[in-house]
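User: Sequence in, structure out. Go.
Assistant: Echoing your sequence, followed by the structure tokens.
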Amino acid sequence: MINDILAWLTDPANRDDIVQRLLEHLQYVFLATGIAAVIAIPAGMWVGHTGRGKFAVVNISGFARAIPTLGLLFFIVLWLGPNLTGDLAFLLPSLIVLVVLAIPPILAGTYAGIDEVDPAARDAARGMGMRGWQVLFKVEVPCALPLIFSGLRSALLQVVATATIAATVGLGGLGRFLIDGLAVRDYPQMASGAVLVAALALVIDLVAAVVQRFAVSRGITGRFRTSRGRPGAGTTAGTEPETTTQPGPHPTTESPTSTTTTVGTVS
């Protein structure tokens, strides 16, 4: 089977089809995740900053994760399909399902990140005269970026895997290989489609991890690096006093302060 998969993936006759389906899949993924981020990130920031609606966020996130995506897709197609024309009758329901799937991890990550900011940092910002929105965008959001990115990465992976259902209603994407291969019992094509979906998920997660590394402040992640021989800020635990060796049989330790004694003349 592995040889059949490699043969199908490397077949020049399939190259254009693979590129086309890959671009369609990426279009669905980024469009759905972008819409979900526009909805979920502001909502999570508001809930985390004000402390209102925590109970609703937790329950909505859990409820949305339990929704069967394929069943929801067929329901929305039957509901909205007669009122829409062309590809929009299938594209819009697919996007709605993917957005519903992507909102919970982004919302939960944003809310948790804002909510877990050290209260001392908030108090210090308010003591400096910052207003509420300044505390949110200059203190809370930078501190919450690791969890926000975690929610985005989780949403991307879920959407990449689930966007294959768009092919069940006649759309494109990598799920097309699964549906078309099943129709003609072309198992190498089906397996190759699954491999492409898994590889795409790994690549997207790797790119997101690189973006997170550069977007999140090193003060949050703890990735500090000082020049050699130059002490960092503050006092480091375990630092010993500097000693110097004087000519003679025994080394001496220089005192940080010296006392000079003047001896007068005895008459």
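User: And one key feature?
Assistant: Residues 231-245, 250-267 have pLDDT under 50 and may be disordered.
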